[in-house]
Specification:
The protein has about 375 residues and is mainly alpha-helical. The chain has helices spanning about 1-5, 10-30, 50-75, 80-90, 95-130, 140-155, 160-180, 190-210, 215-225, 235-260, 265-270, 275-295, 305-315, 320-345, 350-375; strands spanning about 35-40, 45-50. It is built from 15 helices and two strands. Strand 1 (about 35-40) and strand 2 (about 45-50) form a beta hairpin.
Length: about 375
């Protein structure tokens, strides 16, 4: 294990190098590219575009595409780039069809789609509550999904019910948090406090389940809790795609109202915003995005916390364009974390949540210290 860290394989070095270069390039672009704004109009629809969002978005798409190709190539059975791309896109059914189209291509696709869901969910929660330390995995939404999923795995029920149970658990936890936080309205600080309390309670429920049932069943539940893309399929990619197609337009439209809510409840109400209705809609959309991702890959932590904060440092406050940029960066981030998790200790494969936790934990402490100094 020590040797794997000291002298990573060539494919591991390639993944890490591509990821680091992508991060440095994005940060450099954020400093170099002027943040000009210009408007476009198509018929009765107009939009304000930030040049920096476009440039960094294109860079993020290039990075995600590069990592996707790397994900098709590297593995315990290396495949040439041209052969891997051919099997994936234009010459299926060849020698490497099973490896590429059953094992690798669905996995990299799910990683990108799930990262998009988590990134947008975290961006909405952080902007709505006006707190950079908030994300669905911090306030209990992901833990709600974990309770039901762990219960199914521990009791040996039909594993096909796991995505549905996890999705319902996440939305149920969000509903409970909202109701408990209600007091003639919902304030951001009260929502966070209630969410942390609900997460602690649900964590205790998971602990009870893990000590109550046989160890051979709990092992699968423990792996799922860490957040893993092992064994994902095209059906999982289809589930994520449907979730994104349904929720992304709603998130994009509600972002405009979210910016008004950030002015304060009284100011937003004065501008004609139905404060609690729109706040509930935003919580439902953000929770739905997190629930779709968690239902497929488990309660993978820190992506929804880290990615929106990185994007905000590069381009500023949340807008419709920033939301889409967060989705792109989230997909690239989760894919790079999963590739590192697969290859860092090869042939042993780690859950992607181990890598995101190793990156996100120290960053969360940094944010916490910075936030405390600002108070």
């Amino acid at each position: 294990m020590t040797f794997a860290i000291a002298a990573p394989a060539a494919d591991t070095a390639m993944i890490v190098t591509a990821s680091l270069l992508g991060v440095f390039a994005a940060l450099r672009l954020a400093d170099v590219v002027p943040n000009r704004r210009f408007s476009i109009r198509i018929g009765s629809v107009s939009a304000l575009i930030q040049s920096r969002v476009i440039v960094i978005g294109v860079a993020g798409l290039i990075l995600a595409g590069t990592l996707l190709v790397v994900g098709l190539i590297v593995g315990d059975f290396p495949i040439g780039a041209w052969d891997a791309l051919g099997e994936a896109f234009w010459a299926r059914g060849g020698e490497f069809d099973f490896i590429v189209n059953t094992l690798r291509f669905p996995r990299v696709t799910v990683a990108i789609l799930a990262g998009m869901c988590l990134g947008m969910s975290g961006a909405i929660f952080q902007a709505l509550i006006n707190n950079p330390l908030v994300s669905p995995d911090i306030i209990g939404v992901n833990t709600g999904a974990a309770v039901f999923a762990v219960l199914i795995l521990a009791t040996g029920k039909n594993i096909g019910l796991l995505p549905v149970a996890a999705f319902g658990g996440a939305l149920g936890a969000a509903a409970v948090i909202y109701l408990l936080a209600w007091n003639r309205g919902v304030s951001g600080s009260r929502l966070v406090l209630v969410g942390v309390g609900v997460q602690a309670l649900l964590g205790a429920v998971i602990t009870f389940i893990t000590v109550r049932f046989p160890i051979e069943r709990i092992a699968a539940a423990a792996r799922w809790q860490a957040g893993s893309l092992f064994g994902v399929s095209w059906e999982d990619a289809r589930t994520l795609t449907i979730g994104l197609l349904l929720l992304t337009p709603a998130a994009f439209v509600l972002t405009q109202r979210l910016r008004l809510l950030q002015l304060g409840d009284e100011a937003a109400a004065g501008l004609g915003i139905h404060v609690e209705r729109d706040r509930l809609a935003l919580i439902a959309v953000a929770s739905g995005l997190a629930a779709v991702a968690v239902a497929v890959i488990g309660p993978l932590g820190f992506v929804a916390l880290l990615v929106p904060h990185m994007v905000r440092l590069m381009v500023g406050q949340l807008t419709g364009g920033t939301l889409l940029l967060t989705a792109v960066v989230g997909g690239a981030f989760l894919l790079s974390a999963d590739l590192i998790a697969q290859r860092l200790f090869a042939p042993t494969s780690l859950p992607a949540g181990v890598v995101t936790g190793a990156i996100g934990g120290p960053y969360f402490l940094f944010l916490l210290a910075r936030y405390n100094r600002a108070l």
